[in-house]
Known about the structure:
Layout: H1 26-36, E1 41-46, E2 52-56, H2 57-74, E3 82-86, H3 92-102, E4 106-109, H4 116-126, E5 128-134, H5 141-144, E6 152-156, H6 164-177
Parallel strand pairs: 3-4, 3-5, 5-6
Antiparallel strand pairs: 1-2
Helix pairs in contact: 1-2, 2-3
Amino acid sequence: xxxxxxxxxxxxxxxxxxxxxxxxxxxxxxxxxxxxxxxxxxxxxxxxxxxxxxxxxxxxxxxxxxxxxxxxxxxxxxxxxxxxxxxxxxxxxxxxxxxxxxxxxxxxxxxxxxxxxxxxxxxxxxxxxxxxxxxxxxxxxxxxxxxxxxxxxxxxxxxxxxxxxxxxxxxxxxxxxxxxxxxxxxxxxx
Length: 190
C-alpha cells in the first residue's frame, strides 16, 4: 500500500477517502446541480472597479450545452479531441470548460500570460484542434497558429455575460482608456 503521511494531519471526523460521488461524469454532476439549484448564483466575476456579473446554475448548464453543441456540430470536433482554453478566471471559463467536457473533448488549460513560444509548444504538444482565448491576448496568434493543429479560434471578452450596460462600459475602458484590446488578425469567432 502507498504511504499516505498526510492522513495523520486530518482533523478528527474527516474521512481518508471520499468514496463515490454519485455521478458517472462531470456533465452529469453539472446537470444535477443545475436542476437542484437552478436560480441560485453559481459564479460571480468582480472587476477591479467593482463592476460585476453573475451566472446561475441553470444559465451555466444551458450555455455550456450550447457551447458543446457548437464544438461538435459546427466545429466538427469528436470525442477525445483537444480544446485549448486560454483565459483568466471569468464567467466564460465555466461555460467553456463545462462545454468542452459535455462535448466529450479534452480540456487543455493554458496560462493566459504565456508567450507565443510557450503557447506554440503547449498547443503543438497537446494536439489541440480548437482554441478559446481571451481577446486581450489574441495578438499572439499569428505567430502561434502555424506551429499547431488549431483550426478554430473562439475569442471571448473579459465581461462576457455581464449585464449589457456594464459590459459596454468595461469594453469602452479597455478600448479607449487602457488600450488593452489589440486587433485580432486571424480568422475567429467572437
